[in-house]
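Q: Start with the shorter request: fold the first protein.
A: Done. Sequence, then structure:
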Amino acid sequence: MADILLVYKKNFEAVHDVSLGLVTKALDESSQRRGGLRIDVRAREQVRRADFIGRDLVLVLGGDGTLTSISHNIDAATPVMGINSHPRTEDPLGSFGFYMGSNLESFAEDLETALNGDAIVNELPRLQAIIDTTSGNRFTTDPAMNDLLIANTHQYAPSKYHLRRGDHKCLQQSSGLLFSTWLGQGAWLSNAAGKEDLEQLLQKVKEEQKSTHYFVLARDIPPAEREGRPWSWMDWTDESTTITSDMHRGYIVPDGWDEVHFNRGATITVNAEAPKLRLLTFRRSMKVDHGAI
């Protein structure tokens, strides 16, 4: 018996309630055909890490934001399937659904494909930040599918830090460091970086690097600090990026979700070695070069 968790977006928009009804009906019908499925249904706001343990399949009904907001609960062994509950193709206020491999029209068929083990399995890289505090404690942030921000908690104040990657190091002042996976570049990076600069950087990207490398951007860095140190301003790399904070208080924000705070003197190391996300799709592979989302 397959053990399935359905996480859905719950807000004031009736479209999501209608979508939930259609999806749960299709799940019940599949359960009857298969002689029983164990199905738990949770609203995004009520779900906890323990709800994801031991699942054979996690279904996420909503948009990309719904998936990224709960993806940190999902380990590398659990397949996850996204269903777009409010497509932008039907409503300009809906979700683009880049990560949502299914929709309401195809869900029943896609569910059978997933349960039969015939879906396209995409192993998506995720970012992580490892924090070493001045008191000797070490902990790791939740993994980020799209992007990860390190900045001063007071956005009106500059982010000051010592930056190191490999043999390179410098003291830097910016409005914060933004890190992005290849697939997550359209979530924020493509807007934070200048179009010409990003296009030039994309020329460095090789197909085989997309699961091992990540983008890093020092936001609003003074032009004088870019000269002679292009690696410290904007880069595509597989090396760990390490900073030592010179801020009274800073934070790390994975995928625009939970904030993790740190104090002056803390060392933060960012890399793309977090557990991957096992995302199912049905008509296209996420390995295809889509460019910016």
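Q: Next, the second protein, separately.
A: Sequence, then structure:
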Amino acid sequence: MNFFSKPVLAIALTGILIGFSIGWLTALSTVNNPGRPTVLFDEELVSSIYKDASPAVVEVRVIPKTISLFSSSAQTVFGSGFLVDREGNIVTNHHVIDNARSITVILSDGRELPVTLMGTSIADDLAILKVEKEEITSINPLTLDDSDKITTGEMVVAIGSPFEQSNSMSVGIVSGIGRNIISDLQRPIPDLIQTDAALNPGNSGGPLLNSNGHVIGINTSVKFLIDADTGVGLSVSSNTLKNILPELITPGELRRPWIGISGVPITKQLSESLDLPSKTGIFIVRVWENSPASMAQLIGSATADDGIGDIIIALDGNPVQSVVDMVKYLNDLQPGDTILLTTIRDSDTKNIEVKLSPWMGS
């Protein structure tokens, strides 16, 4: 049976031919228009960034003092780092060089150099290694950019030594900003940069670069879900490094300021379930002995008679809603500084002066 009349069939065939022609012309236009982007990133730009930056990126090789009996890896730990000045100072992660008996860096030209461990900051997972500046006179150090100016979606390049593959490069974007993880001191590291550029064991300490080839982050962590093949890459922000770099290039451990509490942010659910007198702030769970908080007689829920601890709602008049907010504020201060805590206890608001101490650890 013929379901179509000749006029209808002609119209249908004409529509198909027009659609095919438009698709063919679009494809032809893409092929014949070299200015039209056909890749996810500018290959010439990425190659140029790698050419300029990779000589300043090093592989860090660590012989540990102690070796885990449960480790299936060799007795050498590998990471990455990069030259930050012409004095021979190399940035890396603290966790790369922690527990080191000896440390060596391998330059991009294959030379192996001994290093001197300079400053470390466990709280920020950063450390500085130093080589003789005469060894790196031909290498341009990397430039630290302003990480506060980065935006989600901009292209980034990571260079490092994943799985001991020296000077490997991966390309991605800034997937998020303002992230945080907990350092080995059980203290949040704020303002981390999240990226989908591939980061693997050995990338730690290497640079995360923007499209100008400048450092916006120090690759520090990859979070994996169980049975997942890919993870979330995180980098310490370049501004975190810049703020403490003068102290890191001198030997010794940098100690961030400490109040001495463990706490959780107040959520709507927490506020309603405990009938808290505030809907925002830091609910103190524990106050550590011999800490500034204990000297100021703050109370945590673990020791409060009625099970309700104090609530911190502001530092020097600046509202805080989480421990991360508090750490970000404290990072601009020094041990020995005095701050004014605004707290709530049993619906009473108090202002309490607290003298900060150096962070004591986990």
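Q: Describe the second briefly.
A: The chain has three domains: 57-136, 147-253, 257-358. Helices lie at 6-32, 43-53, 94-97, 238-248, 268-274, 292-295, 323-330.
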